[in-house]
Amino acid sequence: MSKKLKVIAIGAHPDDCEYCFGGSAAKYIQMGHEVCFVSATNGNAGHQTLGRLELAAIRADETKAVSAISGVSYVVLDNDDGNLTDDLETRDELIAVIRRFNPDMIFTHRTNDYHTDHRHTGLLVQDASFLLGVPLVCPSVPCMEHVPVILSFYDAFKKPVAFQADIAVTIDDTMDVKVRMLDCHKSQFYDWLPWIEHESDQLPAAKDDQYRWLNDKMRCKDAAVANCCRTKLVERYGQDAGQQVQVAEAFEFSEYGKSLTAEEMAVYFPF
Ligand SMILES: [Zn+2]
Asked: pLDDT digit string (tens) for 22-70?
């Protein structure tokens, strides 16, 4: 391995990084790179019966379980779920987290998305990107000396502009790790999300069956990503291998981050 990469994924909620980037994160970890997940909020609005305090504690424990099974480190910022804004205090908080980790790559949400917290997370990262290297901003944490690569997670939103897949990667061989990461978020995938999405009646009662149900759902979702980005997969892996990819993750480059030559692409995406 020529360069040990430091990769940070910044989601709005505990589970967003796993959902959008879990398969790729597992690949980086398996290849000896370092991965940190950040949740910009503590996730304390994602439940239909629990209160905010109790829920924040449960969700913090769920992120610890993700770290234990996957090897990613996890930072949960204590901002209220549903209330995230791109104010200066939160931006400085995020700049400090990013600078301390000193990443080569940053993955996050796009700035158009159904969820206000996702949008604001994308905006906070976008606004932080140049300031990461400005010493007089957030001077208590030394500024970064290099410009990281910045990428957006895949999403299916179309307005005002649709996601453009600049790169798509197979996660066929790490999909099992990704589903196990998501399975750690029991308060979400087996409780809150079925309730808010009006599909509680489809949730099996037995734990093993719940896991299989989640596995099927996630494979279906990431198969749609693979199909949507098939051209990019074929470009990357060749006609035969590209067509055979079952599940994928895809990303769009931000023009505010470092741009990569073809040679560097192979270093930053070594799978
Ligand atoms: Zn979210």
From this structure: 999 999 999 999 999 999 999 999 999 999 999 999 999 999 999 999 9
- Residues 191-235: pLDDT tens digits? 999 999 999 999 999 999 999 999 999 999 999 999 999 999 999
Please give the distance, rounded to the nearest whole angstrom, from the Cα atom of residue 85 to the centre of ligand 1. 14
> What is the distance in A from the centroid of ligand 1 to the CA of 118?
6
Q: Which residue has the tokens 């990704």?
A: 178
Is residue 191 a part of any domain in this protein? no
What spacing in Å lies between the alpha carbon of 13 and ligand 1's midpoint?
Answer: 5
Residue 206 lies in a domain: no
Q: Identify the CATH number of the domain in which residue 110 sits.
A: 3.40.50.10320
CA of 198 to the centre of ligand 1 (A): 17
* 57 Cα: distance to centroid of ligand 1 (angstroms): 17
What is the C-alpha end-to-end distance of the chain, expressed in Å?
12
Read off the tokens for 94.
């995020």
Which SS3 state, helix, strand or coil, does residue 186 take?
A: helix
**∠ CA 214-218-221, rounded to 5°:** 145
Q: How far is the CA of 15 from the centre of ligand 1 (A)?
A: 7
Task: Domain of residue 12: give its range.
Answer: 6-170+250-268
Helix (H, G, I), strand (E, B) or coil at 47: coil
pTM over 0.70: yes
* Most distant CA pair in the chain, distance: 55
For 246, list phi and psi in degrees, rounded to 5.
-90, -50
CA of 39 to the centre of ligand 1 (A): 9
How many domains does the structure of the chain reveal?
1
